Amino acid sequence: MRQDVPLAQASRLLNHGPTVLVSAAHGGRRNVMAAAWAMPLDFEPPKVAVVIDKATFTRRLIEASGEFALMVPSAAQADLTVTVGNTSGQALAEADPPSDKFAAQGIASFAAQRIAAPLVDGCLAWLECRVIAWPDVTAAHDLYLAEVVAAQADSRVFHGGRWHFDDAPPELRSLHHLGGGQFVLPGASVKGRQAG
Amino acid sequence: MRQDVPLAQASRLLNHGPTVLVSAAHGGRRNVMAAAWAMPLDFEPPKVAVVIDKATFTRRLIEASGEFALMVPSAAQADLTVTVGNTSGQALAEADPPSDKFAAQGIASFAAQRIAAPLVDGCLAWLECRVIAWPDVTAAHDLYLAEVVAAQADSRVFHGGRWHFDDAPPELRSLHHLGGGQFVLPGASVKGRQAG
């Protein structure tokens, strides 16, 4: 069900505004967090923009590695998304013995194709990203721009270059954060038509 | 039904990833376009990020005025969204006599509170924005960062600092662009709970 997405279609994975997970790894450490503020930035080569707070352990790993993964979690992962968004990878890394969110929360992962960051099992899409350095912008606004160097998606709900949620069970829909751990899922679809 | 949104809550208007309309005005000219690539950038003062192509007439008006409005169109405005996204304000401005999308498409608008850009009637939310200048980033990536200086929303679906689509009729839901004029609307909502 996990299939490669042509890079020319990668922007479509984030086009409808889902909440994402962000993972990174460096020097034997790894982390994953949640982010609602992510969007496509270009079609081809595909690029993305994402806001990652200075206080996060993930940001330290991104700064060290120049890489991160964005993943589109499914509705079945709502609890996981809230949990990794509200726990500290730093605290786990400094515990004795050191741990991480993957081990502590039993989050299954698999290897990425082009970067070191681990990819979370059961997501609907995975985008492997390399940072395009804009250090002043990142320092001022916690904003990272990056190029997407590989992309995969669950072919049950993403095929032919777009999402198909109409026939998908609720657990195969993306999460869109309203606030306070409340998410809305994609529902009915409508076709807009250009006026004559 | 249109009510002011406290600036501290303004990020919530875009948090779930809706497609937006972008309007701008300068020197007696005005325009409106559609953009799927917009997101919050900060909480307070609220800031936003949006991608606006070099080829657009709206961008020329933003460059000249330093201001724009982001608006969250409703599902009832799907045709309007596609239409303003696929027509050229430049061509209308250069016609004889000159016109614009508001006149040509019969788009009703009202005055903003803090900026010159016109606000489109019938949207679900309106964010008035002043550009935070990052000219190198804008030149390289068509990306604008801006501070939100005023915000309003339709209180039937946004109140208490968040969207409430559960009880809303389909036409009062936001549009999330999948591609090719196909949008998905917010459907069921789920609550994520932090693991113990």
From TrEMBL, chains A, B:
Q: List, alphabetically, the SUPFAM superfamilies matched.
A: FMN-binding split barrel (SSF50475)
Q: What Pfam family is a match for this entry?
A: Flavin_Reduct
**Keywords attached to this entry:** Flavoprotein, Oxidoreductase
- Entry's EC annotation: 1.5.1.-
Protein name according to UniProt: Flavin reductase family protein
UniProt-listed Gene3D superfamilies: Electron Transport, Fmn-binding Protein, Chain A
What species was this sequence derived from?
Answer: Pseudaquabacterium inlustre
Q: Which domain of life is it from?
A: Bacteria
Write one Gene Ontology MF term.
oxidoreductase activity
The yes or no answer to whether the keyword Iron is present is: no
The keyword DNA-binding appears for this protein:
no
* Needed co-factor(s): FMN
Q: Where is the Flavin reductase like domain?
A: 12-165
Q: Which family does it belong to?
A: Belongs to the flavoredoxin family.
